[in-house]
Design goal:
Distance between the termini: 66 Å
CATH topology of the largest domain: Maltoporin, Chain A
Number of strands: 52
Mean pLDDT: 90
CATH class of the largest domain: Mainly Beta
Oligomer: single chain
Helix content: under 10%
Number of helices: 11
Low-confidence stretches: 8-20
Largest sheet: 22 strands, antiparallel, barrel
């Protein structure tokens, strides 16, 4: 009996001991999207520090104490899940993607914060919204996706500078471009190829290229657009025009993940409603114009008659082609608790639709972060890129194909009877420019080669749990080279027996940042985050250029040492330094009330006496949804009210020594001398913007419907004006601070989840309204530049021209309005009036994304309204002064013109040599710029995981898409999307792009 009791006791003890031991739980984590395993998922025993990560196959094994009963699963981009465990059986988890997880985090460049707690107006665009979109300039990805942002393309040249305006125009004469920040570092943006110190390069007037286009769009994780004072005050003297923060992809915890992406496509020029006459239409119209000028049938030249043996040639088709585009990218991503990494390499090629234009791009990105220990982390971001582009001359150049296809008659063949090309200088060539661009393009070229190094080395030391010391060292180094060659065999190079100009520009921007930051929460009710930073930025720009002439006409001799005679040699240097003190603090009480305060003091070398300025902002947010009175209601899932006010400055577009009196070296009888170059103003200071923003964020039905609305008002004071002064000083103007510009607007973004389940359908809609007004100028005076005026009470750069009154039905004369309201056919007696503005009043975008199993369809519409476009091209193709000059005409010019008394038509009587200044600048060529564009359509299919089996491939997606597919507009020109000037002048049309490709993840 005793032995039995002893045995029973031992068995009971053994059982209790086993029960008290840790259990080993195993399982697999997969994605709801494609049922594929997810590596790198954090698996943690809830309430403890015990945790592991899933392996490459999504499997895990974790030891769980007997006292714990719940596992927690978390991974970036997925909703965190908890699972109760019992026994030791396998635990298999399906994680649900959380589309809000990434978009809920906004990046200001200096700080990262949760969207729900932010007091700022910040719009985010994540990579999922623009994946696989084939663009040369990343700014294109913002079109139609962000409220308050207007991005327009002045040219279809690959890599051309885009016009970007955030919440209107702040400055009359300085820059209005936003500031760009990549991975926390302020970077340069714009054209670095054109050397204005070289006469040949400056006069060639090529389309400027944007160094930002070197960035590979497939390396971008997200854009954060900072719009209100609470966000942009952190950038002080450089933030007035808004800030675009670009974050590149980083490493993440998990097994190595490799991605390969290949894409190929075709591009076609899109001419909108613009059409030119064919040979028969051209001959009929030219004959009519000559007869109206008093020329008899017998006196009409043979080459303008059907009997003249003329050919019929489409010069538009000759100038443009179907371009090809191709992109290939490969990347690796992964890491563990100690090291995170992301590497990528990309090659891209995009042919311009205009002959002689295109771009090739190469990129290499490396983002590495190493956790040395629990308190010290270091990292290195390195982004290398190189672009090699060919740019055609603008339409103002005689040798440009853009001007050439319009200015050459369709009855003129490019080929001689023997099949060789005319050069355009032969006797009898019927074209206004005297150039055959098909002949010129085979010899002449303008090349741009840009190499960019973006590097950032950083370290974070956690001194205490509530205090971190950070150091950032960064460089943005740009080397831009341009070469312009004009062959002696062509009309451009004939006069100098061949010429070549070359330039090399180095732009170096160094930045150091030392900061203390942290957070402190004494209890669950109160929390405080803070940042104190010292930042120093130094820019150095140096360039050299040279040109020569008399070069042997041979493809092998296309360098400066082949020029027998030097023409010029020049160079330039410039520097800028900014020292900044930055402070930011955010206080939160019970996650209901948030207060954000920013302070920045900048000292800049641009100014002589007023180097320093202090900028500030205060923002607050009230999370109404967290109030007790909201707990029982079932409609709202989010409700937040926020407001901000603050100041910022504007250094955009300013010369590096804008307030200084400058001298320039001159030649005085072959001896060096100095001459005044710039009249300074010691009291000059920054333009300063004061901004107010009021925002409301609402969510309904568990955020299936979310709405964000903002009202803003901005006033920019101390506008820089060129004040007229007595010419006895040697100058006609001097820079002064006077004037104020105001922008007011309203923005609305609406996101809805229409269907959720087997079929998922999401819609994003946004609309923005902006009103610009000049409140003050020097003594109320007007600032007139060409056909634009800046006048108190009107938008900056309003259209200012004579108002078209139509055609006199009695005689076909052109008519304009006089000051008293009557009409006149004398252009010089007509009154100039303000007629509309160049920038749109309303912009809008609509995106729909539909998923069904492994299929996804998305499409994006965007558009604008409320602006006027000056169709300057039309003023040429409808100008009867060009009849019998070889210049072609628009089809519309020959369809609706005055022919007999009583005709009510839109075009005057066509008279060779012109009809009373009919095509001089007036509102005749001012058209509404309203349009709606189908910007992007994308269809993709992912192979089911069952098909991939054990191939080692996690996911393969095939996709096809179209860009700039359809545009609905009443505008008669090439494209209603113009740059900020609102002027279309022989525009390089934006192309329709069709691509297909695959994306594979291993």
């Amino acid at each position: 009996m005793k032995k039995r009791l002893q045995s029973l006791f031992i068995l009971l003890f053994f059982t209790l001991s086993v029960m008290a031991q840790d259990r080993t739980i195993t399982g697999t984590v997969t994605s709801q999207d494609d049922k594929s395993p997810i590596p790198g998922v954090n698996v943690k025993v809830k309430g403890t520090q015990i945790g592991v990560s899933t392996d490459a196959n999504g499997k895990f094994s974790i030891s769980v104490p007997s006292s714990s009963s719940t596992l927690e699963f978390s991974f970036i981009g997925y909703t965190t899940q908890s699972r109760a465990i019992s026994g030791a059986g396998p635990v298999n988890i399906v994680l649900v993607p959380d589309s809000k997880s990434l978009s809920d985090v906004v990046v200001t460049g200096y700080t990262v914060q949760n969207k729900k707690d932010a007091t700022s107006a910040i719009s985010k665009v994540s990579a999922d919204q623009f994946k696989d979109t084939p663009v040369a300039d990343p700014n294109e990805l913002l079109k139609g996706r962000v409220t308050g942002v207007v991005v327009t393309s002045g040219s279809g040249q690959p890599g051309a500078v885009q016009s970007v305006r955030i919440r209107g125009i702040n400055s009359i004469s300085s820059g209005n471009n936003p500031l760009y920040v990549i991975d926390g570092v302020v970077v340069a943006r714009g054209d670095f190829n054109t050397d204005t110190n070289n006469d040949l390069l400056a006069s060639n007037q090529v389309t400027p290229t944007d160094i930002l286009s070197n960035l590979n769009p497939n390396d971008i994780e997200s854009f954060d657009v900072l719009k209100d004072a609470s966000a942009i005050a952190l950038y002080g003297a450089r933030g007035a025009n808004g800030v675009i923060v670009i974050t590149t992809k980083k490493g993440k915890i998990g097994a190595p993940e490799f991605n390969v992406r290949a894409q190929y496509g075709k591009t076609k020029a899109n001419f909108g409603n613009f059409k030119l006459m064919d040979a028969s239409q051209f001959l009929a119209y030219e004959k009519t114009g000559l007869i109206n000028a008093g020329i008899t049938d017998a006196e009409i030249p043979d080459y303008l008659t059907a009997a003249g043996g003329n050919s019929s040639f489409n010069w538009m088709d000759a100038a443009f082609r179907t371009g090809t585009s191709s992109n290939f990218d490969i990347s690796a991503r992964g890491g563990n608790e100690g090291t995170k990494y992301y590497f990528s390499s990309g090659i891209g090629k995009l042919d311009g639709t205009l002959i002689g234009s295109g771009i090739k791009k190469y990129s290499l990105l490396s983002n590495i972060e190493q956790k040395i220990n629990s308190r010290f982390t270091v990292g290195l971001n390195l982004n290398l890129s190189y672009s090699d582009g060919l740019t055609s001359a603008d339409g103002s150049r005689y040798g440009s194909p853009i001007l050439g296809y319009i200015a050459t008659a369709p009855i003129q063949s490019p080929y001689k009877p023997d099949g060789s090309l005319y050069n355009g200088r032969e006797s009898g060539w019927y074209g206004l420019t005297g150039d055959n661009f098909l002949y010129n393009t085979q010899y002449n070229f303008n090349s741009n080669k840009n190499f960019r190094t973006l590097g950032r080395l950083y370290g974070d030391l956690k001194i205490f749990d509530w205090l971190k010391l950070s150091e950032n060292l960064s460089v943005d180094w740009i080397n831009a080279k341009q070469k312009l060659y004009q062959d002696a065999r062509t009309s451009d190079g004939f006069g100098q027996n061949g010429s070549l100009a070359a330039s090399s520009i180095d732009n170096k921007l160094y930045t150091t940042q030392t900061s203390l930051s942290g957070s402190y929460a004494p209890n669950s009710d109160h929390s405080l985050t803070y940042l104190a930073m010292l930042e120093y930025s130094f820019k150095e720009n140096a360039g050299i250029s040279a040109s020569g002439k008399s070069i042997i006409a041979n493809d092998r001799f296309r360098s400066l040492n082949a020029a027998i005679l030097p023409v010029s040699v020049g160079g330039s240097t410039s520097t800028q330094a900014i020292l900044s003190y930055i402070g930011n603090a955010t206080y939160s009480y019970q996650s209901k009330y948030n207060l954000n305060v920013s302070l920045r003091r900048d000292e800049a070398s641009n100014f002589k006496n007023n180097k320093a300025e202090t900028f500030y902002a205060v923002g607050g947010a009230w999370r109404i949804i967290n109030e007790d009175f909201m707990k029982d209601q079932k409609v709202l899932s989010n409700a937040k009210l926020r407001a901000s006010y603050g100041t910022s400055g504007n250094l955009s577009g300013l010369l590096d020594f804008v307030s200084y009196t400058l001298w320039t070296p001159v030649n005085y009888n072959d001896n060096p001398g100095l001459a005044p170059f710039q009249l300074g103003n010691d009291d000059l200071r920054w333009e300063k913007t004061k901004s107010f923003d009021l925002g409301l964020e609402l969510g309904f039905l568990n955020n299936r419907i979310s709405l964000e609305a903002d009202y803003y008002s901005k006033k920019t004071n101390q506008q820089l004006f060129s004040l007229p002064i007595s010419s006895t000083s040697g100058f006609t103007t001097m820079p002064v601070n006077i004037g104020q510009v105001q922008n007011r607007g309203f923005e609305l973004a609406l996101n809805t989840v229409n269907i959720e389940g087997v079929v998922n359908w999401k819609t994003n809609f946004n609309v923005s309204f902006s009103k610009n007004k000049v409140n003050e100028t020097k003594d109320g005076q007007d600032l007139v530049t060409g056909q634009n005026i800046t006048r108190v009470g009107f938008p900056v750069g309003s259209w200012y021209m004579r108002e078209w009154a139509g055609v006199d039905p009695a005689n076909g004369d052109p008519l304009w309005f006089k000051a008293d309201g009557t009409t006149t056919n004398n252009y010089n007696l007509a009154e100039r009036r303000i007629i509309g503005q160049a920038l749109p009043k309303y912009t809008f975008g609509l995106t729909n994304i539909v998923n069904y199993k492994d299929l996804e369809l998305s499409f994006l519409f965007y558009g604008a309204t409320g602006n006027m476009i000056y169709n300057q091209t039309r003023s040429f193709v409808e100008n009867t002064a060009y009849i019998n000059s070889g210049f072609n005409h628009s089809v519309e010019a020959g369809e609706d013109f005055w022919q007999k008394p009583g005709d009510n038509v839109s075009r005057p009587k066509p008279i060779a040599g012109g009809n009373k200044n009919e095509s001089s600048a007036s509102s005749r060529f001012l058209e509404k710029g309203d349009y709606l564009r189908l910007k992007n359509v994308r269809l993709s299919y992912s192979l089911p995981s069952g098909i991939l089996g054990k191939t080692g491939i996690k996911k393969i997606t095939f996709f096809g898409q179209g860009e700039n597919l359809v545009t609905w507009t009443g505008y008669t020109g090439v494209d209603p999307e113009t740059d900020a000037t609102g002027n279309e002048f022989f525009k390089y049309p934006v192309g329709k792009i069709y691509t297909f490709g695959l994306n594979a993840t291993f």
